[in-house]
Design a protein that fits this description.
183 residues; alpha/beta; Rossmann fold; 9 helices; 5 strands; 57% helix; 14% strand; binds adenosine monophosphate
Length: 183
């Protein structure tokens, strides 16, 4: 079962993806986290990605799709996979469809988490990750609106695939809303 967690930066995708993957025994793949690990380890991918991640841009489709391909092959992703922060472009959505098709799988559900933009910006400033400075946050939002938000239309073309979830409120309340959808 392949589940995509979709939404603007800071809506809580990562927190919810980790909790739900744990509870359901699924693998959780955050491409952002994979890139941050690669940067910390200064691998070839990390060196290529560092400046882009730190300025709020998008790493190339080729690099992130390769990360996804390698991860989905791992044993713990066979029962189910939660993709958090991927796909982020139409190219990546097509790459993913191709990858999955090759193994007879497809995206089961797109969980679209929504929260008011200004609330989310304040949340991110408080989180304080290296790319959580206000100018970088605003750039990540611009990139989201331009490159990633249009993906929703791509997935809305498949009936009943996209499920909207209100991401406002306590973490456990949002988890319960998502679990109700996945049940
Ligand atoms: P995230 O942890 O999802 O907020 O991602 C942090 C940063 O990693 C993003 O601002 C991008 O620079 C990069 N990144 C993560 N996932 C992707 C992706 N699917 N495509 C391109 N860049 C990505």
């Amino acid at each position: 079962m392949i589940i995509i967690f979709f939404g603007a930066p800071g809506v809580g995708k990562g927190t919810q993806a980790a909790l739900i993957a744990e509870q359901m025994g699924f693998g959780h793949l955050s491409t952002g986290e994979a890139l941050r690990n690669a940067i910390a380890a200064q691998t070839d991918v990390g060196k290529l990605a560092q400046q882009i991640v730190e300025s709020g841009g998008l790493v190339s489709d080729e690099i992130v799709t390769q990360i996804v391909k390698e991860t989905l092959d791992q044993a713990k992703f066979q029962k189910g996979a939660i993709l958090d922060g991927y796909p982020r472009t139409i190219g990546q959505a097509r790459d993913l469809a191709g990858l999955l098709e090759a193994s007879g799988k497809k995206v089961a559900v797109v969980v679209n988490i929504t929260v008011d933009k200004e609330k989310v910006i304040q949340r991110l400033i408080l989180r304080g990750r290296k790319d959580d400075k206000e100018d970088v946050i605003r750039e990540r939002f611009n990139v989201y609106e331009k490159e990633t938000a249009p993906l929703l239309d791509f997935y809305l073309a498949t009936p009943n695939l996209v499920k909207n979830v209100d991401g406002d409120g306590q973490v456990e309340d949002v988890t319960a809303r998502i679990k109700a959808i996945l049940a």
